[in-house]
Structures are given as C-alpha cells and as structure tokens.
Amino acid sequence: MIELYKNGGYLLHGTEMIPEEEVAAVEQKLGRKVSKEETKKGTIAYSILKNHNLNDNMDDLKIRFDDLTSHDITYVGIIQTAKASGMDKFPMPYILTCCHNSLCAVGGTINEDDHLFGLSAAQKYGGIYVPPHVAVIHQYMREMYAGCGKMILGSDSHTRYGALGTMAVGEGGGELDKQILGDTWDNPYPGVVAVYLTGAPKPWVGPHDIAIAICGAVYKNGYVKNKVMEFVGPGVASMTTDYRNGVDVMTTETTCLSSIWRTDEDTHKFLKEHNREADYKELTPADVAYYDGVVSIDLSTIKPMIALPFHPSNAYEIDELNANLDDILAETEKAAAKVAQGRATFTLRDKITKDGKLQVQQGVIGGCAGGNYTNVVEAANLLKGKFIGAGEFALNVYPSSMPVYMDLMRKGYLTELMASGAVVKTAFCGPCFGAGDTPNNNGLSIRHTTRNFPNREGSKPGQGQMAAVALMDARSIAATAANNGRLTSAEEYAEAFGDVPEYHFDESPYKARVYYGFGKADTKKELVYGPNIKDWPTLPSLGKNILLKVCSKILDPVTTTDELIPSGETSSYRSNPLGLAEFTLSRRDPGYVGRTKAVKEVEVAREAGKDVTADDADLKAVFDGLKNLPGNATLANTEIGSTIYANKPGDGSAREQAASCQRVIGALANITQDYATKRYRSNVINWGMLPFHLKGEPKDFEVGDYIYVPEVRKALAGDMQDIKAYVVKKGATVPISLYIKPLNEEEKAIIKAGCLINFNRARKGL
User: Do both 380 and 429 map to the same domain?
Assistant: First the structure.
C-alpha cells in the first residue's frame, strides 16, 4: 500500500511517522513544543545541502559539488563550452564514461573520435576517463565515487546515488560548466518529502517493482516535483544497498530534484567491499524531523509491476493487467495512436494468445537500473535449467560494469543465463535510449531499464515503423523468459528467489583501463579532434525587442526531451551542434527544422544590415503592424528568432541538446504553461533562451504567426510577472500576456548575453 499524506509529517526517532495535523501527539511524545521551521533542519537533506552551500542564506542555495560526471553523449559539448569560456583544468574530479555511444554503429569513426577526444581532455585538464564497455556511468560512480554526505552533479538525468548517502543531481551541461569555471549551482531550498518505508519486500519483488509503484503514485500529481525524496523508516533495513540502488535510480522518473537515504551497516558494508570504507558515515534524521510531504509505503504489499508504454508512471500490477488484458491494452493502443499521429500503427491486443496470455517479443535486463549484481543473479537463478525457446522472444542481459560481469562469471551465473538462451553483453546504456536492441516493427519489449518513453527503443514512426517498451523488474522478465515470452509475474516462480551470495568487487579492470588524471593536468597536451567535433557557433546577445515566429505548437500534456531531440542513433552527432540540430523535433514535428532555419537566415541577413522586409511582404506587413506598439520597433533594434509553444516540455533526460539544438538554428524562447523539470528550464536559460510562460490558453497564435515582445531586456529587470507581448499577423495585433518565474541575477545576465559561453567570455575579458 502506498499512501500520500495530504500535508507534511513528523518523523520521530527515525521510526515513527506522524501527520502534521497531529502535532499535539508529537509534542506529547517529546514533552516539549515543536517548531516546524526548526525541525525542517532535522532532515538528512538539510545537513548535506548546508555543508555544500556557499551562501549564508539557506533559502537560496549556492552549491559546490564534490564530483562531476558525464558520458559520451554529453562530455564533448561540455568540455567545448568550458574551453571556449577560458577553462585551464578541472577543479574537481570529473569522470568521463563511454557507455552511451559505445555500440552506436552510425557515422563511421564518429563515436571513437569522441572517445579519443574524451581521453585527451582527461589528460589535458586532469579528468578521469572510463573507456567503452568497462562500466555504465552510474554504476561506476556508485563503485568508485559516491559516499556518505557527498554531492555529485552529472549531465545525465539518472545521476542518483542517494542509497549511498550522496545527494546527486542530473542537470544539463551548462550547470557542469559553471562548476568547472568556479561558479555554483543555484536553486531555492527545495521541499523535502519523506519516503517512509515499513515492512519488507517479498522475495519475488524487485527494486523495479517498488520504483514503478512509486512513479505511478506520485508522477501525475506532481507530489515530489523539484523536491528531494528522503528514504527513511524501518523498511530501509529490509533491502541491501545493491537493491536500494535499483530503487533510487528511478526517482528521476518522478521529476524529483534529488534523493537521499538513511545509511546503515549495509551501506558501510557496500563501501568497504569497494575499498572505500572511509567514505562511510551514518546519516540519519534528527530525533524529530519535519517533512513537507510523506509517501508512506508498506513494502510487503508491493506486487510485481509493469509500466506500460509510454511512461514509467503508467503502472499496473502484472496480476491486474493479466486479469484485464483486453481493456487495459485497448487504452494503451489509444495512447500509441496519439504518439504515431497516423504515421505508423502499434497494436497490443493482437498479441493476446489463445490461452489468454500476452506474448512479448523481447526482454532486456541492463544499465544502471537492471544490470546490478543482485538483479542478474535473481534472473539467472530462475532461468537455471530452463529455456527461453526458439520462438520470437529473445533476452539480452547487460551487467552494469566489468567488476559485476567478472563476479557473475566467476560464480557461474552468466553461464546459466547463456545456457537458457539469453545473450550476455558488456556494459552499455543503449537499450535505455534507443541505440541498441530496437525491437521488430509492432514489437513489445519488456525491460529492466529506466525509461519507456515514445520511440525511445529506437523505432521511427516517421518511417512507418513503431515499437514500444514496458518496464518490468528483472525477476518478472526472467519469469516471462522461462514462459517463452508470455507475460508472467515473478510470483509464479516464488521458490526461485532469495539465494544471492555475497558480491566480491574486483577493481582490476579499472586499474588496467581507466585513466586517472585528476590533479595531473598536462596543459601542453593537445585535444584530439575528429571531423565531426565542431565548436559551438557564435550566438548574438539579446536584442532590445524580439520578434518570435512560432515554428511549432505542441498541445500534448507533456513533451519529453526525447521528442525535442531524439535519442538513439542521433546521439552519434552530438558533438556537432549544427549537425545534431537537423534532428530537432524530427519525431514530433518534422517541419520544425525547416521553419526555424528559414527564420535564422532572415536574422543573419538582418544582422548583416540587409533590409529583410524588401523581398518578404509578410514580414513587411508585420513590421508595419509594430509601428504603433511599444518599443519603437525597427529592423535595427528588433532581433528576429523562432519559438516553440509546448504545454509542458522537458520531461526526461538532462541533456542540454534539447535546448541547444533549438538555439543554434534560430530559437530565442520557449513559451509554455509549465516546464516539466528544473533541468530543462536551466538548459533553456543557459543557452540564452527566454523561459516564458503564457497566461491563458494558446488560442491567439498558430504556427507561422509572429509574437512581438517589446523592451524585453527591460522586462528582465522587472518582476517579470506581466510581460506584454503581441501576436502580429497580417497587420493585426492581439495582445497576450507572458511571464517568467523568478530568475537570479546571473541567469538574467546569461540570457542577456545570449548564452552561457558569451557570459563567461565577457567576465574573463576574452
């Protein structure tokens, strides 16, 4: 059972949770008065944030992190940005892993060129470089860097190490650049929500079952959005740290800001096994701690779960799904039709067999969520002596690191998996984001990975093909594999679970292959560039007035970063800003790129002093319509760019390219009702785009219309709560009201400068 408190709650002695409405009971138990404001300081999150905050004021945090981490989709752009901004070396450990583009067979030498660039950057600036196939980013950080009381910033949204006592945050590359350049991560003090655990999970229930259940309970209502999830209560002790890691990494899918768990002797044991006993300390809430919300979970009530396409929160108990297959799958098919937009078809009810089972085409266990030692052992134990069959179902398993792979191999678990018909592969994140194991057209894949967003498995509706992913725990995936791909709950094989021997960590693959360069920067070392690695294009500063052409209008409830810039094989082009930008919104609005590039051409010509209205009657009519509006708009003082409208963009990945791709081909703003995540809004700001919100519904403009915002630089200096703007079409104007949620002074300066690179170069006099 999962219960969400209507308000907050008080945790007493780390074990008893009392709703805040019953504060009198709290005071009676303690024998004293209780102050909510004072007991807010009793959370684990408060103490860690306080220790990393460089501001005297805890209401406005300015955080310096202990370590940084990126993978090979993001580190080239981050290093290029820092280099252009005047970086001379990495001031803290910066770990560069090669786990995303390591198997993406697109573009010839592109991927290995990026890897060699990463190695040369680690040598030149003093970084840590992890080669392909050695470890996925988050497993490496768990094994080698996460520790109690630390804070880590990563350019991947699943940067979560809370089960090891580390508050970790996934952000776009711009926020890592700020750390590299000596600045801080600025954020208002977040709310802290307790995830209060009691009971113990059943042996056949895995971490993904718990995680999917949590996502289903809190995602749609925004209960933990931009807050810290703090895992407390007696139920924590019922799970090993390896198991907790599997729950923790999925907190990203709730849209929370970060996570933290109370630590105990099992945390100590995990760190000791990884030769980092000194990184352990007990983290526990104060004797009384107030939380802004409470997610109360009796772990013993969680059953094997499935998250149907197209979000981890689309959660059902597997038993519930199997009992109502036709009705539930019919709803999923309706959702698929909305995703496909007539370009492809995806069906599920035709996969119901004559005996009433759902036939699945593929299974995957891997990555930072599924590839953990415990998950693979439990899957192997179930499949021992069984066969997945020679039919359409296939199973691929990716242990999360070479040390995990080696221990599984030594103990015979990989042999058992392979003997059952599963294929075992090296550490790789590709199945999670569409660069590996793309199913057949109209196929359904069940995966113990982190996401199942539309087309994230690699299919392309624009080319008439569509597949989908449902998320499940490794235990139920193994049960399904044992049943030749017919969807099966792990509970049907209850006797298979619970026999997990102690893990032994062997660091030798890291000693053999990882380059440890922190503190050993060789400034004379030359960066090694491949032909696809390009510098960021020069971007102008913000104009006095701006004229925005609406180049896409998306009315979906939520727009993911995968829709803004597709994952999958496009990741090979992420070191080429303009090359990658050609894919912007390609799966959601294929006409967007052509529209915004046409606007960019007009702006480039305007900046060159040309009269861009001379041969463009529509644009001339627009400027004629501006004559009686504020701002005294002229071609000389009015910057022209594009914008997109989306109700709620940015759910999902932290990758900054979701914003930078818009910016480099002409965008000046996003207009929204809300931003799905803090990290996407930060990316918009760091790339010099205005993060507008629209008051009211988007009924006054369509694709092709212009929106004029006069005196926009002055608007940034005000309270930004009522920014006058005008829709201009064929000489007529319709006033609309925009606003921007609070920005700090540095964020305003970045937008005015045109992007973070410009801002930093100006500060350094470059």
Answer: yes
Q: What is the pLDDT of residue 106?
A: 67
Residue in 582, 584, 589 with CA at minimum distance from that of residue 554: 589
Task: Enumerate residues 6+ apart whose C-beta is below 8 A from 289.
Answer: 10, 11, 39, 40, 42, 43
The residue with tokens 């370009």 is: 343
The CATH number of residue 438's host domain is 3.30.499.10
Alpha carbon distance 590, 689 (integer Å): 22
- Indicate if the pLDDT at residue 202 is higher than 70: yes
Residue 171 φ/ψ, nearest 5 degrees:
-135, 170
Contact (CB, 8 A) for 314 and 219? no
Amino acid of residue 592? Y
Least confident piece of the model among 89-93, 323-327, 432-436: 432-436
pLDDT, residue 8, reads: 96
682 close to 174: Cβ distance less than 8 angstroms = yes
pLDDT of amino acid 730: 74
Confidence check: pLDDT of 458 > 90: no
Same domain, 39 and 87: no
CA atoms of 428 and 722, how far apart (whole Å): 47
Quick one: 427 and 568 in the same domain?
A: no
CB-CB contact of 748 with 714 (8 Å) = no
Spatial separation of the C-alpha atoms in residues 216 and 210, rounded to whole Å: 10
Q: Are 325 and 466 found together in one domain? A: yes
**What are the structure tokens assigned to 8, written together?**
């907050």
Whether 20 and 142 map to the same domain: the answer is no
Which pLDDT value is given to residue 105? 62
Q: Is residue 493 part of a domain?
A: no
Which ranges constitute the DSSP H helices of 35-99?
A: 36-39, 44-52, 75-84
Q: Which residues, other chains included, contact 476 with Cβ-Cβ below 8 Å and sequence gap of 6+?
A: 206, 209, 304, 306, 318, 446, 488, 489, 490
The confidence band for 104, taking pLDDT boundaries of 50, 70 and 90, is low
- Cα separation, 360 vs 412, in Å, equals 27
Does any domain span residue 285?
Answer: yes
Residue 575: give the domain boundaries: 545-764
Q: Specify whether 588 is located in the same domain as 671.
A: yes
Hey, which residues does 135 pair with through a beta bridge? 401
Report the distance separating Cα 704 and Cα 688, nearest Å.
Answer: 22
Paired residues of 261 in beta bridges: 231
> What is the rounded distance in angstroms from the CA atom of residue 61 to the CA atom of residue 409?
46
CATH number at residue 221: 3.40.1060.10
Q: Is 702 a residue whose pLDDT tops 70?
A: yes
Q: 266, 301, 336 — which closes off a domain?
A: 301
Domain count, the chain: 4
- Orientation of helix 241-248 relative to helix 207-218, angle to 10°: 30
Q: Which CATH number does the domain housing residue 691 bear?
A: 3.20.19.10
Q: What's the CA gap between 666 and 81, in Å, rounded?
A: 19
Over residues 13-39, the mean pLDDT reads 93
Last residue of a domain, one of 273, 301, 329: 301
Q: How far apart are CA 84 and CA 762, in angstroms?
A: 11
**Together in a domain, 680 and 734:** yes
With respect to residue 736, please indicate whether it lies within any of the assigned structural domains: yes
Residue with tokens 């300015």: 62
SS3 state at 612: coil
**Is there a domain that residue 273 lies in?**
yes
Same domain for 424 and 448, yes or no, is yes
- Cis bond before residue 310 (omega within 30° of 0): yes
Angle, CA 149 vertex, CA 147 and CA 154 arms, to 5°: 65
Looking at the chain, how many residues does it have?
Answer: 766
Nearest Cα to Cα of residue 138 among 629, 503, 654: 654
Q: Is 167 helix (H, G, I), strand (E, B) or coil?
A: strand
CA distance 61 to 49: 8
